[in-house]
């Protein structure tokens, strides 16, 4: 049975999915995937052979930053998963939580196997921010199972060893949080036995992603690995604050004080004085003087 809760506003999105269904209205499934009768999602479909890729996307673009205020979103997403290999083969390849441009929602070409369905091997630049769970060492990977934070590339900006437990029914829990105040992305993975692994990286989502983005999970397999997602929830929020109307021009309806306007007040010869470093002062009826400021001449206005 599907269980999804959604609370959308212009700058806030949240959802909680505890079981997956083929007719889920708030999700988009692409590529190869399988939904079991118990509601677990496998990316890609482990019953099909070959090198396959599958992804699930939250249907609606989520806010990443606000152009009117410049504020960047904070978000938190959590999911539980199982990863295990088929028969006695070496497992490959992995899966990745990612954010990307809504204009490129489709699975990229040439993105199978170690490219995890998010990067085109023929493109030098692939726009996404991701957290990968990779248990196969490709030429660009470290020689061990790892969790990595990826910024437009599968060459991870930060890596830690992935304590992968190859056992059916072994569930791991992931929490990924981005704090806009500190510009820090933090990943916390909890094993079945209670061991906790953490990874963090400073990054600015405003420079990496468009104002609105899609979020999703992508998995790839060289036919020897099963990636099962058991549940997925997320909460994204960006503050939208009204600009402060300071020194507002009545005719233009906007502030006349720009970010470059700097006014310094003080006393000169027992009189009020204002140093206007931009040469435009809101003060009227003042005399003109000269003041040396940081080695440059600036205007000094003295009250009569």
Automatic annotation (TrEMBL):
InterPro entries the UniProt entry points to: ConA-like_dom_sf, Legume_lectin_dom, Leguminous_Lectin
Keyword Methyltransferase found: no
Ranges for domain Legume lectin come to 13-237
Question: Gene3D superfamilies from the entry?
Answer: 2.60.120.200
GO MF terms, alphabetically ordered: carbohydrate binding
Q: Which Pfam families match?
A: Lectin_legB (PF00139)
Q: Which domain of life is it from?
A: Eukaryota
| Keywords (A to Z) from UniProt | Lectin
Q: Does the keyword GTP-binding apply?
A: no
This protein's species is Trifolium subterraneum
The UniProt entry's sequence similarity note says: Belongs to the leguminous lectin family.
Q: What is this protein called?
A: Legume lectin domain-containing protein
> Could you give a single Gene Ontology term from the biological process aspect?
response to symbiotic fungus
């Amino acid at each position: 049975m599907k269980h999804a809760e959604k609370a959308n506003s212009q700058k806030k999105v949240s959802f909680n999915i505890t079981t997956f269904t083929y007719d889920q209205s708030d999700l988009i499934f692409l590529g190869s995937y399988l939904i079991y009768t118990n509601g677990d999602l496998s990316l890609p479909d482990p019953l099909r052979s070959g090198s396959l890729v599958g992804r699930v996307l939250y249907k609606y673009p989520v806010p990443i930053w606000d152009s009117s205020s410049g504020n960047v979103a904070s978000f938190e997403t959590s999911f539980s998963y199982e990863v295990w290999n088929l028969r006695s083969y070496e497992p490959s390849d992995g899966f990745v939580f990612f954010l990307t441009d809504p204009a490129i929602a489709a699975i990229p070409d040439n993105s199978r196997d170690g490219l995890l369905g998010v990067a085109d091997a023929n493109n030098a630049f692939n726009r996404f921010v991701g957290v990968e769970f990779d248990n196969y060492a490709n030429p660009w990977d470290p020689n061990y199972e790892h969790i990595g934070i990826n910024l437009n590339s599968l060459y991870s900006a930060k890596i830690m060893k992935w304590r992968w437990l190859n056992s059916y029914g072994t569930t791991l829990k992931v929490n990924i949080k981005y704090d806009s105040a500190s510009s820090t992305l933090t990943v916390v993975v909890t094993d079945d036995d209670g061991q906790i692994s953490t990874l963090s990286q400073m990054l600015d989502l405003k420079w990496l992603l468009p104002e609105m983005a899609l979020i999703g999970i992508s998995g790839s397999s060289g036919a020897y690995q099963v990636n099962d997602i058991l549940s997925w929830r997320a909460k994204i929020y960006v503050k939208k604050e009204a600009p402060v109307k300071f020194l507002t021009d009545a005719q233009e309806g906007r502030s006349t004080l720009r970010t470059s306007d700097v006014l310094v007040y003080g006393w000169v010869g027992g009189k009020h004085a204002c140093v206007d470093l931009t040469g435009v002062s809101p003060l009227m009826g003042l005399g003109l003087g000269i003041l040396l400021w940081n080695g440059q001449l600036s205007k000094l206005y003295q009250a009569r």
